[in-house]
Amino acid sequence: MNKTTIAKAANYVGDTVTIGAWLTNKRSSGKIAFLQLRDGTGFMQGVVAKNNVSEEIFQLAKTMTQETSMYITGKIVEDKRSPLGYEMQVSDIEVIHEAEDYPITPKEHGIEFLMDHRHLWLRSKKQHAVMKIRNEIIRATYQFFNDNDFVKIDPPILTASSAEGTTELFHTKYFDEEAYLSQSGQLYMEAAAMAFGKVFSFGPTFRAEKSKTRRHLIEFWMIEPEMAFTDHEESLKVQEEYVSFIVQSVLKNCKLELETLGRDVSKLEKVKTPFPRITYDEAIALLKEKGFYDIEWGEDFGAPHETAIAESFDKPVFITHYPTKIKAFYMKPDPNRPEVVLCADLIAPEGYGEIIGGSQRIDDLELMKQRYEEHGLTGEAYQWYLELCKYGSVPHSGFGLGLERTVAWISGVEHVRETIPFPRLLNRLYP
Ligand code: 4AD
Ligand code: MG
């Protein structure tokens, strides 16, 4: 018996193989039944012709319920009409488990219903394509940072400190102490950069944000590179190289998935270095030109502002040099103009918003002490981070890329809830 998978069946054209599969849909007329099959690696059509199989198998093919699992055997033949390029001429079916009435039928369902059935919804063709693209972005991320000599370092999830302010922290008890779930590994990655030079982390982060938007998750995954002896400009180069690499990897390795999602790939093909850059000041001027007359220097940008700015470019755009007072305590002020910091947000095209936040970090002990006072970082939890400025402090920069927003943009799906296997949202912890 040639046991294989749908994805690998291309190597067996002309041969008879057996595949473990589920039925996703079927239709039949008089003497022929068409089975839509999936096996985790892909989706394929199985053709059951009445005069090719026993009467028993033909009846089975016509009556099988959706999501019934089986071993299905037949000859792989070329089929120019299918995106896959081949199908199976079925000769035998061995049912493993006959599925009960499956809640997700081929008809339309409301989003809350689908979210309640996320454990099953993951089987659908669209969700499968999005998760395969997510997987390719993860694979390409490891490849990029390994090829560029970064060391993978894992920061803790349970922490006593916060990098991005205290309002959005998840509290928990750590025996008798207070602890939080990590909202960013950055401070630990800075310590790691002083030990290993170029490092990156890839892990879950948590934000108790009361935001119910297409861009916000409570639990999301972040890639956080940190580089010693690296200034802001050099960091921007790494960022554009990295983002362009993952986009080009998806274009090359996920053709079927992009087609399934109906993604306009011509837009992705343009995502090559260098990316455009505008300063915060220029962004304010651009927004006023576009009719946002009320925006004042010193205010942060919201989703509508980011979308309006992104519309002027066909690649991701860096907005640099934000006002010091609206950014995090660790960002290095521009030596020529201390009211702005050496930082950038990378805004994705097509309204997907900020996918990267990054900056050069403060490396001067006196300035860092001053920031601690201004931000009330008095507790013992922050003492270790201050020590990094005492022992051979060097210029260093880093950034954080949000995985799910990046998956949403590259896949072209509207909402981040479809870009993570089991989304954690405001008011949703199930399933
Ligand atoms: O801009 P943020 O808050 O930056 C940091 O956490 C830095 N400490 C990173 C660093 O420099 N090492 O978050 C980084 C990215 C955002 O650009 C966005 O893509 C994503 O994380 N992100 C979210 N994604 C989904 N849901 C949320 N609630 C998110 N909050 C941030
Ligand atoms: Mg940010």
Write the layout of secondary structure elements.
Elements: E1 3-4, E2 16-29, E3 32-38, E4 43-49, H1 55-63, E5 69-78, E6 86-97, H2 111-116, H3 118-121, H4 125-147, E7 151-152, E8 158-159, E9 170-174, E10 177-181, H5 186-196, E11 198-206, E12 219-228, H6 232-253, H7 255-260, H8 265-269, E13 277-279, H9 280-289, H10 303-310, E14 317-320, E15 333-334, E16 337-341, E17 343-348, E18 353-360, H11 365-375, H12 383-387, E19 396-402, H13 403-411
Parallel strand pairs: 1-2, 4-6, 7-11, 13-14
Antiparallel strand pairs: 2-3, 2-5, 3-4, 5-6, 8-10, 9-10, 11-12, 12-19, 14-17, 15-16, 17-18, 18-19
Helix pairs in contact: 4-6, 4-13
Magnesium ion binds next to strand 18.
Short key terms for the protein model shown above:
431 residues; alpha+beta; OB fold (Dihydrolipoamide Acetyltransferase, E2P); BirA Bifunctional Protein, domain 2; 8-stranded mixed beta sheet; 5-stranded mixed barrel; 19 strands; elongated; binds 4-amino-1,4-dioxobutan-2-aminium adenosine-5'-monophosphate; binds magnesium ion; aminoacyl-trna synthetase
Describe the structure.
With 431 residues, the chain is of the alpha+beta class. It folds into two domains: 3-97, OB fold (Dihydrolipoamide Acetyltransferase, E2P); 118-418, Bira Bifunctional Protein, Domain 2 (BirA Bifunctional Protein, domain 2). Helices cover 30% and strands 28% of the residues. It contains 13 helices and 19 strands. It has helices at 55-63, 111-116, 118-121, 125-147, 186-196, 232-253, 255-260, 265-269, 280-289, 303-310, 365-375, 383-387, 403-411, and strands spanning 3-4, 16-29, 32-38, 43-49, 69-78, 86-97, 151-152, 158-159, 170-174, 177-181, 198-206, 219-228, 277-279, 317-320, 333-334, 337-341, 343-348, 353-360, 396-402. The longest helix has 23 residues, at 125-147. The two termini are 38 Å apart. The chain binds 4-amino-1,4-dioxobutan-2-aminium adenosine-5'-monophosphate and magnesium ion.
